[in-house]
């Protein structure tokens, strides 16, 4: 009879503990999710305010009149006087003697 009551108690604990654990974890998750959502809403609101401030500054900087189209704009070309010549590429100076320098392969490459 003792084992029967103990078995029933263990069975009830086995049923109740996972449910209680799930409820505790669920409440913690909901609390963290709510805090994260509030932070996201606050960040989005601050970003919207910053965007509005930037737009106000850009509107203040916008020119009030259109630029004159009859003012010529000089664009540089490849033949402009200030175009510099590129320096010629020189082969590197040999730093040391390589074992293949006297081989037929090296002689074929250099000739």
Determine the structural class based on helices, strands and strand pairing.
mainly alpha
> What series of H and E elements makes up the topology?
HH
Rounded average pLDDT: 77
Shape: flat
Task: Please describe the biggest sheet, giving its number of strands, its sense, and whether it closes into a barrel.
Answer: none
The tally of beta strands, per DSSP, is: 0
Note poorly predicted spans.
none
| Rg over CA atoms | 40 Å
Q: Given the structure, what is the number of helices?
A: 2
* Relative strand content: under 5%
Distance, first to last CA: 106 Å
Residues in helices, as a percent range: 55-70%
Oligomer: single chain
Layout of secondary structure:
Elements: H1 2-61, H2 104-110
């Amino acid at each position: 009879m003792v084992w029967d009551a103990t078995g029933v108690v263990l069975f009830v604990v086995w049923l109740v503990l996972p449910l209680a654990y799930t409820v505790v974890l669920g409440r913690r998750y909901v609390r963290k999710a709510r805090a994260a959502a509030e932070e996201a809403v606050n960040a989005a609101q601050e970003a919207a305010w910053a965007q509005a401030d930037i737009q106000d500054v850009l509107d203040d900087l916008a020119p009030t009149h259109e630029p004159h189209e009859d003012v010529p704009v000089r664009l540089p070309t490849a033949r402009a006087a200030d175009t510099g010549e590129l320096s010629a590429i020189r082969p590197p100076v040999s730093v040391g003697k390589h074992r293949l320098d006297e081989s037929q392969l090296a002689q074929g490459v250099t000739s």
